Amino acid sequence: MNNIFVSILSAFITGGIICAIGQILIDRTKLTPARILVLFVTSGVVLTALGIYQRLVDIGGAGATVPLTGFGYSLAKGAFKDVEQYGLLGAFTGGVKATAGGITAAVFFGYLVSVAFKPKPKS
Predict the structure, then answer these.
(1) DSSP reduced 3-state for 99
(2) Residue 107 to residue 11: CA distance in whole angstroms
(3) Cβ of 53: how many Cβ atoms within 10 Å?
(4) How far is CA 8 from CA 14, 23, 74, in A?
(5) 12 with 20: CB under 8 angstroms?
(6) In which band, very low, low, confident or very high, does the pLDDT at 122 lie, cut at 50, 70 and 90?
(7) Is the pLDDT confidence value at 2 over 80?
(8) How confident is the model at residue 45 (pLDDT cuts 50, 70, 90)?
(9) 74-115 residue pLDDT tens
(10) Rounded to whole angstroms, how far apart are CA atoms 12 and 4?
(11) What residues does each domain of the chain span?
């Protein structure tokens, strides 16, 4: 029971810190949300390549893998895995294969929501 509580707390704190960084970037910089999203995914890839993000995943679990930095982490891990197996071609295919399930779910559920709800103009 105590281990589960520690894991949940670690995930909450890790994810909260990542989200707080995003909020600070929104509030204190002139970066657009789209640029911040790209920055987060790219940061996940770079930190994974440097071996830093894996330590964050070990500590924070889902708190580190669910935010957009975690998407970059998954892309990089998939690419590294396929490079070992297929060579240079794996750099192009590995990330897509590693994240295909998440991308498919996002498209599918996004479509369901768009069908279920009527869009309203922004006022």
Answers:
(1) helix
(2) 26
(3) 23
(4) 10, 22, 21
(5) no
(6) confident
(7) no
(8) very high
(9) 999 999 999 999 999 999 999 999 999 989 999 999 999 999
(10) 12
(11) 2-116
Residue type, 32: T
- Could you tell me if 41 and 72 are in contact, meaning their C-beta atoms sit under 8 angstroms apart? yes
pTM: 0.81
Alpha-helical runs (H) found in the chain: 2-28, 33-49, 53-60, 62-65, 68-86, 89-116
**Whole-number Å distance between alpha carbons of 97 and 75:** 9
**Cα–Cα dist 44/66, whole Å:** 11
What's the confidence (pLDDT) of residue 48? 96
Residue 82 exposure: Cα atoms within 13 Å on the Cβ side: 18
What does the mean pLDDT of the chain come to? 93
| Token duo for residue 83 | 């490079």
Q: Read off the amino acid at residue 123.
A: S
Residues 66 and 17: beta-carbon distance below 8 Å? no
The CA distance from 32 to 28, in Å, is 11
